[in-house]
C-alpha cells in the first residue's frame, strides 16, 4: 500500500461517464471544473441537466462507446454492473481506452472487467471513500483508493489519478483484495450498525448523550443510501459474510455477559454520563 499526493498540472481528458446518477454528477462537476471534456449516458434521461453542465448526453451507450474517449468511467450501482457492462458494444471501441470503476467493492468489478474487456483496454479499479455529502466542501484529505489492475498507457492513467490528487485527496494504492477485506470491517459494518439502528427506530430524545447523538447521526446518514448499495456491499464482497457473523457473535457474547451478571445478582456498576 502506498500513499501520495500531487499538485502539478496534467493533460485534460475525454471522459465518458456510464451511469449519470447522483454520484456520477458529483464527480462530473469537479472534472468539468478542471477542464476535462465529459460525455455521459444513463438509463434515466439526464439530457437537460447535462446541457446545463456543458456535458454531451447520449441516450444510447453505443454512441458513448464510439465517441473516442480516453476514459470510460463506470458509475453504476454494484448490483447493476454486470448488466450495464454486458450492454456495452465493446467491439465498437475505436481506440485503446482506460476503463475505471468507482464502486464500493473492488474484486467484483476487477474480475468482471478482466473477463469481458479486450486485451488492449486498460483497467483501473478505484473507490473514492467519500460522496456528495462528505465531499460537498471539497475533497482535500479525503481518501481515494485505487488499484492499477492492467495499465499500459501510464500517461492516461496518471492524468486520471491527477483529477483526485490535485484536489488534495489522500491517494492510497491498494490491491482490490485488501480493499475488500478492510472495507468489510469498516464500511460494511458501519452500514450494518446504521441499518440495525434504523430497524430499532431510534430517535433523538430530550436527554441525548453525545454518544447517542452520534448513533442517531449514523442511522440518518446510512439510510440516505439505498438498500441496493448495502446489499451490494454484502453480496459482492466475499469478506462481508464473515464480518456479519462476527457482529452477530459479538452481540450474543455481550448479551451472555449481561445475563451472567444478572444471574450473579449484580447490577450495572457504571452508567453513561
- Strands in their spatial order, largest beta sheet: 1-9-8-7-6-5-2-3-4
**Helical coverage, percent range:** 40-55%
Rounded mean pLDDT is: 94
N-C termini distance: 40 Å
Low-confidence stretches: none
Put simply, the count of helices is 10
The helix/strand series, from N terminus to C terminus, equals EEHEHEHEHEHEEHEHHHH
Radius of gyration: 22 Å
Number of strands: 9
What is the 3D shape?
Answer: elongated
Question: Could you say which structural class the secondary elements and strand pairing correspond to?
Answer: alpha/beta
Characterization of the model:
By secondary structure, the chain is α/β, with parallel strands linked by helices. The protein has 10 helices and 9 strands. The protein has helices spanning 22-33, 47-53, 61-65, 81-86, 107-116, 154-165, 176-199, 210-222, 227-235, 240-263, and strands at 2-4, 14-18, 37-41, 56-58, 71-74, 98-101, 122-128, 143-150, 170-173. It has a 9-stranded mixed beta sheet, sandwiched between helices. Strand 5, helix 4 and strand 6 form a beta-alpha-beta unit. Helix 7 (176-199) packs across helix 8. The longest helix has 24 residues, at 176-199. It is elongated, with a radius of gyration of 22 Å. It starts with a strand and ends in a 10-residue tail after the last helix. The model has no long low-confidence stretch (mean pLDDT 94).
